[in-house]
Specification:
The complex is a heterodimer. Chain A is mainly alpha-helical. In chain A, about 80% of the residues lie in helices and about 0% in strands. Chain A has one domain: 3 helical TM bundles of succinate and fumarate reductases (Up-down Bundle), CATH 1.20.1300. In chain A, helix 2 crosses helix 4, helix 3 crosses helix 5 and helix 4 packs antiparallel against helix 5. The model of chain A has no long low-confidence stretch (mean pLDDT about 90). By secondary structure, chain B is an all-alpha fold. Chain B contains 4 helices and no strands. The model of chain B has no long low-confidence stretch (mean pLDDT about 90). Classes of the chains: A mainly alpha, B mainly alpha.
């Protein structure tokens, strides 16, 4: 397609000239947060293996563990959404399907984060 | 600018799979599997919040043989994605990008992922 517009004019505010690196940084930032949070998750699984209901509730209800769980849920679903987004961008070439999947994944990630956090807070506030 | 006449990069299928490229696609596959696996995490949290009965049936579900196999696979995917993610973060700083350290760190990541999975499930079962 021939155009008289300057290539720079066409690039500014689109893709990497505007917000392109934001996605990259957001993915790395959430990845770094998830390193200690995943270690906390593994530790939690080790503590809760074979524990009964009361012990599991007590563990999640402690302010420290509840905070870690909320942080883990938030960064997990954010990171998962960013990752799934690029996977869909790379492999789904039919535009309508791609946009539909992007919306579904974003909605599912948001829902997952909210439901997890409300469940954690319910346990935490009930004591 | 003629954009449809530009040369295409060769399609993925013409490349012979290499250790580093296999690990790269495994990072994506494990990421997708982990995303799907979050459903279990949410279900566990909801069951915990709902009460003892819901929690017991969730534990019962998670003890089914097929679900146990999925959980072991999920643990392996988690450790692989965690360790290989750290490998990617190191690459982002511009270090260990040469062929030799890239291949060696790949072997280390796979080895450690299996060892950590074995330790976790060895302790659990």
């Amino acid at each position: 397609m021939k155009t008289l517009r300057n290539p720079l004019e066409r690039a500014i505010n689109h893709g990497s000239a505007g917000s392109g690196v934001h996605h990259w940084w957001a993915q790395r930032f959430s990845a770094i947060l998830l390193v200690p949070l995943t270690l906390w998750l593994v530790w939690t699984l080790a503590v809760l293996a074979g524990a009964d209901y009361a012990a599991a509730r007590d563990w999640i209800a402690s302010p420290w563990n509840a905070s870690m769980a909320v942080l883990l849920a938030g960064s997990t679903f954010y990171h998962a959404r960013l990752g799934m987004q690029v996977v869909i961008e790379d492999y789904v070439h039919q535009r309508a399907l791609e946009v539909t999947l992007q919306i579904l994944v974003a909605a599912a990630a948001l829902l997952g984060a909210i439901v997890s956090m409300i469940a954690i807070l319910k346990v935490a506030f009930a004591g | 600018m003629e954009t449809n006449q530009r040369p295409l990069s060769p399609h993925l299928q013409v490349y012979r799979p290499q250790w580093t490229s296999v690990l790269s696609i495994l990072h994506r596959i494990s990421g997708v599997l982990l995303s799907v696996g979050t459903v279990l995490m949410v279900a566990w949290l909801v069951a915990l919040a709902q009460g003892e009965q819901a929690y017991q049936s969730m534990i019962g579900f998670m003890s089914a043989p097929l679900v146990l196999v999925a959980l072991v696979g999920w643990t392996l995917a988690l450790f692989y994605h965690l360790l290989n993610g750290i490998r990617h973060l190191l690459w982002d700083t511009g270090t260990m990008l040469e062929l030799k350290p890239a291949r060696a760190s790949g072997w280390m990541v796979v080895f450690l992922a299996f060892v950590l999975t074995a330790i976790v499930w060895g302790g659990l079962l």
